[in-house]
Structure formats: structure tokens, C-alpha cells
Predict the 3D structure of the following.
Amino acid sequence: MSDGSGARPAIIQVALPAPLMRTFDYRPPETHVPLQAGQRVRVPFGRTRKVGVIMGTADHTSVPPKKLRAAEALLDEQPLLDQSLRELLAWAAHYYHYPLGEVIAAALPAQLRKGSELPCAAERWRITAAGHSVEISALAKRARVQAAIMDVAHAHRQGFGREQLADLSGSWRKSLSPLIEQGWLESIPGSLWPSSAENHPLPGPSLNTHQRAAVEAIHGTKGYAAFLLDGVTGSGKTEVYLACIKEQLAAGRQSLVLVPEIGLTPQLVMRFRERLGLEVAVLHSGLSDGDRLLAWAAAADGSAQVILGTRSAVFTPLARPGLLIVDEEHDPSLKQQDGFRYSARDLAVSRAARLRVPIVLGSATPAFESLDNVAGSRYTRLELPHRPGASKPPSFRLLDISRQPTREGLSPALEESIGQHLADDGQVLVYLNRRGYAPVLMCAGCGEVAECTRCDARMVVHRSQGYLACHHCGAQRAIPENCEHCGDVLRPIGQGTERLETYLRERFPEQTLVRIDRDTTRRRGEIERRLETVRSGEARLLLGTQMLTKGHDFPNVTLVAIVDADQGLFGTDFRASERLAQTILQVAGRAGRAERPGEVLIQTLYPQHPLLQALTTEGYAAFAQTALAERRDSGWPPAGYLALLRAESTDREAVFRFLQQANEAAEPLAGPGVLRLGPAPAPMEKRQGRYRGQLLIRAGKRGELQNFLGPWRGLLEGLPAARQARWSLDIDPVELF
Ligand code: ADP
Ligand code: ZN
């Protein structure tokens, strides 16, 4: 039927957003339009209606004739999802053991999920000069919908379409015609996306030999090939992406670029737009539903040539795919952490293979999985070993704080260096991944510590706002005057960014300091405003959390001070040291991009730790080799494969009853290569008033794990305790809690 011959099938198989691992059979809807896989239909479902996607057809069904219902309406004339995308989604549903209908729902923009029409290039409108002088508030009294349309027209001066009107009441069509007749709106049929004809791309630097070799290798492939573009921060990876995208543009093909949420900054979008000389379609969570749908549709019809998006953009349909890119491919945020828990990086690789196009995974600190894929010749490594021009890599030094006293968490040696760099007219970045004033509030008398009542966690002191906050559930309460047990005074213990800010201001009173963390950047535009003070050179001291580590360059920073490296050294997660190394290098990478080389100082209690030694003296590659060897010995990924069954409930017993039953159900199914670890409480057992437990499954081979998971997943639903706990299965988990 996908040939569009129009023959009417007896049964259509529809993927619907419902928690079941199968499609649903319906009789086809009444329509003269040929039925094809990938079209949406509206169907009755229980007492409600749902929108689903036709996945296939059949002659027979096991549904008894009386129960077999007919689809109510066909919503698309052409398939919304092409065959390659349908295959990817079906494969993902299978691999992640998640219901296909829910997988498809995650791939579709909200408006399409609800059944709205796809934007149409033939139906675009724009406000006229006469339209600008219309008084909308007066119009609203006579014709509410007309006024609402004029509001939309004002907000989208370049033009708008169905997608911007979809959220108005259903009758917008009737109200549109009088506006056009009045001459307030005009029709602008043409393209969904602005054409690039009149723009001139800004010239970029000429590529160095390594960059050119990378571009040629990528451009020289026929069909699918995966590349790991391994280059330190500032080595010119983005220039390689841009050059490859230009090659694709010249050939009339589209490029899809995925970046972590935090990396999709206005600066990055601007750089792509200016250098490519075209309007880039951007897809991220902050968009309105209408804008998201427009970008999606423009990618699907091919008018948008370059698509830049976060995680879920991996599912964007492409009319003429040429190249896929995943920047910061090691970043954990590329993995969806709830609902349909997919890895956007891994799906991008799978998608590229289906589309038979090259994919480039870029990072300064590649994930161990990717290094393993290079070792196994599945990916080709392309190296950018140097920063271009005069800019030199930073030097690293470990500061042993086990033997020197610290003041407010800073050793005298670190303070001295900060002072030195400031005196030499440098900028200093102080990194502490802990917001608030202090992580602990403790009674000086009895040692009692303020804890969250809903989580196994300590309350963090936020002194300027005057409250204690739990960073896990968001609970807040006033800072108590005295200990409620013994009445003694309470002391904040340890440092957060707020406390460090206070101290650094006292210590370096003549310097302008700017703090960037979630607390100081809640207001819209605040992060840009603060970053601008760094860029302009007004702020000399820059203090912040993880928010600083991605997407922003600080060319005049000459010293990066990492206040506490030890958070990651002995974490419960086997990936803790990998993450620590990545964080250190990502923070370090912000520094010294101009002519002045940067210096990185790392405070630690364990300067002899082999991983810290390898990282700071030999670099990430050597560190990764050491750590990878450990993983091979111990069987952890990438030397093994994981699935994590999580369960939670307000009733602790219900959690473990379910996990115990799941464990027993696994017993006869698990082959000799499938290891079960647990059931065990999650590292933070209680969170938001719910108890959490887990059962970890590990296998030496991916196939072995998948063969086990299929039948096991089928049994989990039917377990007696399955309804008393909320549970989920996470394949290739990146966080073990
Ligand atoms: P990355 O993406 O690896 O962090 P970028 O591509 O952003 O690196 O490059 C870092 C800086 O170096 C940018 O300002 C860029 O314009 C500049 N740059 C990149 N390649 C070259 C080159 N071949 N010659 C001169 N400058 C370059
Ligand atoms: Zn809490």
C-alpha cells in the first residue's frame, strides 16, 4: 500500500500513544485519498479518541468483528513519517523496550500529536501596512477571532501559517477571509522557510591541515560512515562542521546538527547563520508549539537546509538528508532521562546508517563508548591535535589541599595565583559545582544536620534569600535561629558559590566579580547580560557552576581554578571518574584561547590519584586508556551492556516486592552471561517522599542482553506487584540512580 496504489486494505494497523507494546487494528476510515503507512488517523479508543500513525495493513485480524472499530478520519494526504523514519522509530521501540505509539508521540511536534494540519507552503499570510494601523482592542470587541489573528500577524511580521493559528478556535478560516478582503493581511504563497538567495555568508578562517584532512575524509565517503572528531576545546571542530555543511549545501542536501540543550546558545545559532548565509531552523524546548511545527515541516519539505536542535531533533524528517552531526557527543544530556529514555547520539548513528549518509560525532572528551567504537573500527577517528594560530593549550597543576589549610575552601597557593593573574590583567574563572551558600547546616552543640523531610538529602543554606532548600525536590523552609534539639547555634559547613562569592569580594575588593549559576540567572536574559560583562572585560573574576562549562568561550580567561575535584573521584557510579575528567577538561577548555596561554589549577585531597595524574600530565587520551582498561577488567560499559529496572512508590515495601518479583521472573530467563545486581535501594533512596529501588542487569554481549530483555519486559507488566509501584526500564543508562 505504500506505493499509493489506492487499493483499500481490510485492516489498518495503527500505532497509538498507549502503554502497550503493540499496534491496534482498525477498519480504514472513509476517504478517497489513498491510504499509506506514515499517515495519521483519528480513531476511537475506549471512550475517547486518539491520534495515531498507520504502520501497516493486514487482511485479517484477531479482533472479533463486533469489537473491530473504524478509524474516524484520515488526517494526512501524504505520509507524515517516511519509511526510513518509521523504521528508525520501530527499531527504537524494540531496542528500548518502549511502546511504539509513545515513541512516535515523542518524535512528533505537539500540534501534530493533537491532530493539527501540517503547515502548507501555499497557505502563508503577512500583515500589510494598512493592517499595522488597525486598532486590535477595538476589533476584539466586534470580532474576537479576527483580533486574535491580527495579534498573530503582528507577532510574525515575516509571515505566518496554519501552525500559528492552530491554537485559536477552530473557526479561524472563516475569520481570515474578511481580514484579507479589508486589505489588512495579504497572501504570500511560496516557501515555508526563507530562501538564502540574498544572503552572503561571512568568510571564515582558512582551515589548517588537520581540519582539511577531516573535511576531506568526511566529504569523501560514499554512503554511511561514522567519524569521531576528537579535538580539544577550541581546536576548530565547529569550523569543520561548517565546512562540511557548506559542501552539503552546494550539493543541495540538508544537514542535521544535534547539540546538548545548554550548548544551543544564541551565539552558536548566530555563528551558523552568519557563516552559512542562511536562516538555520532551530529546534529546542523553549519554542512555541507553532514555531516548532514550522521548523519541523520546513525540514520535512526541504526548504530548511540546516537544522540545529537538541535531543529530540534527531527525529526531524529530512527531505534531502546529506549529513548528521552530534556535537559534544559525550554529554549525558543527549540521553533522555524520563519516559522514552533514548540516546540521541546512538539513534543519530542508527539514523545515519539507514539514510546512508555520514555522521560526525564531535568532542574534546569523547565518551568511552565512542573510543571503544574507534578501537573496534566502527568509527573512524579524526584528530584535531592543536588549537589554531598562536593559542596554546593550558597547563595543569594539582594543588594538594590535604596538607595546607584552606580558607573558605581556597588554599593560599590558589589565592595567590588568582591575585597574580588579576594583577597581570588576566581574567580568572573559579569553578565550583555547588550552588547556594553552604551544603550543610550543622548544630555546633549536638551535631544535628538539617535534612529534607521528603528526601535522603541535606538542606542547602541559601543565605541571601534566607532559606534552606532541598536541591532534589525543591522544598524550602526558613533558616532556623537555633537547633531545635539542643538550642545551640547552627553553623553553615562547606562552601557553595554564594559563600565563595562573598569571600572573593572581600579578598579582591577592587575587582568586579560576576557569579553565574542557576540562582543568579533565573530572570530572562540575565545569563546573557552576565556573560557580556565577562566578554567586554568589565568583570575580571568569574565564578560559577556547570552552567559555565558549555557553549561559552572566554578568550581572555588566563586562570581556571577548580575548587573541588574530589566530588567525582569516589562516586558510586562507575562513570564518576569519566565525568570528572570530562568536566575538568570542559572547564579548562574555556581558558586561554587568545595569545596568552591559560593555567588550570585543581584542588584535591588526592594529588597522587592515578586518574588525576594521567589526566593532568598526559591528557584525556591517556586517562581514557587507563580507565578503559579498568572497565574491561571489571565488565562495565563499554566492555559490557546494562539495563536498569527502576521502581518507586510512597510505600517502601511495594518497591521491593515488585523488584523481588521481577528478579524471580528473571531467574529462568537469564542466560549464563546475564548478571543481575540487586534489588537494591537507589543511591538516594528517598526522594520527593517516594522510596526508590533498582535492579541492574549486566551482560557481556548486547545480543544476550536484548534476548533476555524482550521476554522479561513482557512478564513485568503482569507481575502482581507491578501496579503498586511506578517502574521503568532504562536501556544503556547513563546515570545509575
Ligand atoms: P571548537 O568547536 O573545537 O571548540 P571552534 O571551531 O569554535 O573550536 O574554533 C575555536 C576558535 O578558533 C574560533 O574562534 C575559530 O574561529 C578559530 N579557528 C578555528 N579554526 C581556525 C583556523 N584554521 N585558523 C584560524 N582560526 C581558527
Ligand atoms: Zn527534598
